[in-house]
Write a structure and sequence with these properties.
The chain is built from eleven helices and ten strands. 40% of the residues lie in helices and 23% in strands. Strands 1, 2, 3, 4, 5, 6, 7, 8 and 9 form a nine-stranded antiparallel β-sheet that branches. By secondary structure, it is α+β, with helices and mostly antiparallel strands.
């Protein structure tokens, strides 16, 4: 378990998923903030299940529309950084899903819920509100993980399983995401060679699993890699290569993370530290390759 905090700022604890919850769940986290009002930025992600055990707030998405945060919510994939306002004290327990986890646990096409919050009170039937009430009495991240794990496993078994031909597709996308500047045509070629899927099928599956077409995913992954490098102090030349120029890089990083390269380095945001400074909790879990068996259960 890792804890991310700065003096006078909110705290975030995180723990990687293990066992039967792999490969659908990347990690769990517990966010706490005692400020009466807190403004922050939500970076791009692939989808989360959240239990807001204390506090309230709202999210403002890239197109300007605002949605109220719910006690139990499913946050869809983001098209860009979103801003949020919290009124506290606030406590949020989160389950960060991998792309396959969205398919396996939410069971809805990801692109239909980008930049939206879904009411999650019915996700586990009547058990979700019961779990929320129990979580309000819990004090540790481990307790909350133990509380939700049986429901996540149940949900895995309820939703239609991921089709076998989709496994090579998911692996190919993860490998492609980690490449510095591989073309979309190469993505199509890789997937066709391993699964026989054509371009239209790949485009449809990217929407269904990741919430966007390959062109949008390429921009997301490129900005996420650049943000990680910048945050960890990489020389500018190591970051610029996939972009047209420095201005292009700055605009893309800000669009997808909410931060400029300069503010990335000076931020005290614990969630930013969690997603950019640690290999286990990176900004796009389940995309950048890591040792996970997609067929594990």
């Amino acid at each position: 378990m890792l804890r991310f905090a700065a003096p006078g700022h909110p705290t975030t604890e995180a723990k990687r998923a293990t066992g039967r919850l792999l490969p659908h769940v990347a990690f769990f986290y517990l966010f706490r903030c005692d400020d009466p009002e807190y403004h922050g930025v939500e970076r791009i992600d692939l989808g989360q299940i959240r239990f807001m055990t204390r506090g309230e707030g709202e999210m403002t998405y890239p197109d300007g529309h605002v949605e109220k945060l719910k006690p139990i919510m499913v946050a869809g994939p983001g098209t860009g950084a979103a801003s949020f306002t919290l009124r506290g004290p606030v406590e949020v327990f989160g389950v960060v899903l991998r792309a396959m986890g969205w398919k396996a646990m939410i069971g809805l096409p990801a692109h239909k819920f980008t930049d939206h919050i879904i009411d999650g009170s019915k996700l586990f039937c009547e058990r979700a509100p019961e779990l929320l009430e129990r979580m309000r009495e819990m004090t540790t991240l481990d307790e909350m993980i133990s509380g939700i794990a049986p429901l996540l496993i149940m949900r895995q078994e309820e939703v239609k399983p991921v089709p076998e031909p989709h496994y090579p597709f998911l692996l190919a996308v993860r490998e492609w995401a980690a490449s510095e500047d591989v073309s979309i045509d190469e993505l199509y070629a890789r997937i066709h060679a391993t699964s026989g899927l054509g371009e239209r099928q790949v485009q449809r599956l990217c929407l269904e699993y990741f919430g966007g077409p390959p062109t949008k995913l390429k921009r997301k992954f490129r900005a996420a890699r650049a943000a990680m490098k910048i945050y960890r102090g990489a020389p500018l030349d190591d970051v610029l290569m996939p972009f047209a120029d420095q201005s292009h890089m700055i605009n893309e990083v800000k669009h997808f993370t909410g931060y400029t390269p300069t503010t990335l380095k000076t931020s005290n945001d614990p969630a930013l530290a969690m997603t950019l400074d640690n290999e286990n909790f990176h900004v796009l879990p389940g995309v950048i390759p890591e040792p996970v068996d997609l067929r594990s259960n």
